[in-house]
């Protein structure tokens, strides 16, 4: 069960130094944008408008949020059409999910919400909440849920760690593909070598022709870059270490 409305409002006001009184106010998208800025620290807050009162302006705020979700591979759909209606239930459910995500990925440290807004005007009465510090954020993440059960410990690294894992998996897939390609072409070279060996066994004279086709093919087969040795007499491609 997620936090109550009052618990969520208290958390928002403390984190963002606002004076929100009901979850419906999250339907403007502004507060939600800044919650995720506290996690990612790269949302263009100058484009987020707090002091607005039209659905069109709310939608523009949510576009900023959706762009951030796409950039950081957050797969949660943002129900913009429902949220901008500023209905309690829709905004409560999305805010509860937002709080769970924040608990998991907030990097800790000080977050100066006012400085991040760079003086962007907010509705009158906002501000005045304490700035979030490492200790206060950790205390909220390390507490208990309203039902009394223990919270899950935040995943180390957060979004940055997830991006590194994804990049590592991509590199592994690339290596597997390169190995398959290497083996494919190496098998072709080995087949050509076997055909030449068979031809030389059937007619030993053709290998003695210095400018003949056999010598030219062998020169290509056994040509190397610096650091790779040409096979010794009697050795074949399959006797050498591969790449």
UniProtKB/TrEMBL annotation:
Keywords: Cell cycle, Cell division, Cytoplasm, Cytoskeleton, Microtubule, Mitosis. Residues 2-103 form the Calponin-homology (CH) domain. PANTHER family: MICROTUBULE-ASSOCIATED PROTEIN RP/EB FAMILY MEMBER. It holds the Pfam family EB1. It is found in: Cytoplasm, Cytoskeleton. GO terms for molecular function: ATPase activator activity; cytoskeletal anchor activity; microtubule lateral binding; microtubule plus-end binding. The keyword Cell cycle applies. One of its GO terms (cellular component) is cell cortex of cell tip. Residues 116-157 are annotated as: Disordered. Belongs to the MAPRE family. Its main location: cytoplasm. This is Microtubule associated protein. One of its GO terms (biological process) is cell division. Residues 131-157 have a biased composition (Low complexity). It comes from Pseudomassariella vexata. Residues 153-230 form the EB1 C-terminal domain.
